[in-house]
Design goal:
The chain is mostly helical and about 250 residues long. It has seven helices and three strands, in the order αββααααααβ. The protein has two domains: about 80 residues, no CATH class; about 150 residues, no CATH class. About 40% of the residues lie in helices and about 10% in strands. Helix 2 packs across helix 3 and helix 2 crosses helix 6.
Length: about 250
């Protein structure tokens, strides 16, 4: 009886070790495939012949690395808005484009600037802390750049719904001013809003009743889902992308 127990224990332990070893091998293969895809993308982006370089267009490109299939996207960080360095007007434009009302967008844009330490006019720290205390928060803005997009959720006035709406259009690696030819329709709308505010012109706000509004929110390409000619949606004026810096992302398909 004791011998049978020992044999069963050794067998179970051996199977566990085999599963662990298989997982380690699978992880190593996956990592090698992802690294290989990124290196191949960098190589093709660095081709001395411009006409042979891969376009930075955000479209998926499937590669075969060993026995693995990897999908790589080449995207420009300058397509999105950097909350660490963007102006309050640009942040407000993005918030309005994604559904926030003007007053909430203005307050939240200023609060983001205070958190990141980029507000043009800094309020006294005691006043800022008092606002956070009044909101039931036991902390205040650090006055330092955001380290992760999730940190935006700690800004006073930021709701999960608002963060979910703006997060696809943010980056922590882009310049203060996004590329004017951004392929992101919400960023393009925010840029247009800022430009119109600077020139004193008035822009019709995003119409939630637009038949293509959900397409815009899902970041589909407008060339595939153009608005009707009489639609008031501000995302009709969409320009072609330009290239600047590239972000490489890989997803292993199993």
């Amino acid at each position: 009886m004791l011998i049978a127990f020992v044999v069963a224990h050794l067998t179970a332990a051996g199977r566990t070790e085999i599963r662990i070893a298989r997982n380690l091998v699978t992880n190593a293969v996956t990592q090698a495939a992802a690294d290989g895809a990124i290196f191949e993308a960098i190589f093709n982006l660095s081709d001395p012949q411009p006409q042979n370089r891969w376009p930075v267009d955000g479209n998926p490109r499937e590669l075969v690395i060993g026995n693995s299939r990897v999908v790589v996207w080449l995207e420009d960080e300058a397509w999105w808005i950097n909350p660490n360095s963007a102006s309050p007007a640009l942040l407000e434009g993005l918030l309005r484009a994604t559904g926030s009302d003007p007053e909430s967008a203005r307050r939240l844009a200023n609060a983001i600037g205070e958190w990141a330490g980029s507000a043009p006019v800094a309020r006294p720290q005691s006043v800022v802390l008092a606002d956070y205390r009044a909101a039931g928060l036991d902390y205040g803005p650090p006055g330092a750049p955001f380290e992760t997009p999730d940190e935006l959720g700690r800004v006073i006035g930021m709701t999960p719904a608002t963060l979910a709406a703006i997060r696809p259009h943010l980056t922590l690696f882009g310049p203060p001013q996004p590329n004017a030819a951004s392929t992101d329709p919400f960023v393009a709308a925010a840029l247009a809003e800022t430009a119109n505010a600077e020139t004193g012109s008035v822009r019709v706000p995003a119409a939630s009743g637009c038949a293509h509004y959900s397409d815009h929110r899902d970041r589909f390409r407008l060339s595939q889902y153009p608005c009707h000619p009489v639609c008031d949606c501000p995302f009709r004026s969409h320009t072609a992308p330009r290239l600047r810096s590239a972000r490489l992302a890989g997803r292993l398909l199993v």
